[in-house]
Prior knowledge:
Helix content is about 75%, strand content about 0%. The chain has helices at about 5-15, 20-35, 40-45, 50-60, 70-80, 85-100, 105-115, 115-120. The radius of gyration is 13 Å and the shape is globular.
Amino acid sequence: MDEHEFTRTVAERTGLSRQEAADLTWATLETLAHRLSPGEARDLSAELPERLADAVRRGGTDHIERFDYHDTVRRVAERTMLKKEEADKGVRTVLAVLREAVSEKEFNDMMSQLGADFSQALEPAG
């Protein structure tokens, strides 16, 4: 999946404009990278299109931060100026599109570092 397809898919699923979806995707990937080990961030970057990989690299750190899913949504909302509900749907959507864009092994490796609350965010409601 290339960057344009990724962004278009996020835009279609969230109802955001292409630019808003691109900003949301970038902010989400950069924020998630703060939670990943350097090796995992590198592995994820290797499976993404270059500009999306740049977001992961930019957010990568040697000091893994510990924050939960709700804090991720808050951070993404602040960075994108989206409402909290829009950011929540957006982060869920970016995670779902990531699941489609990278290998199953890489996605599972990433999710294992993010934690159970991120996995629960991907589960369908109801």
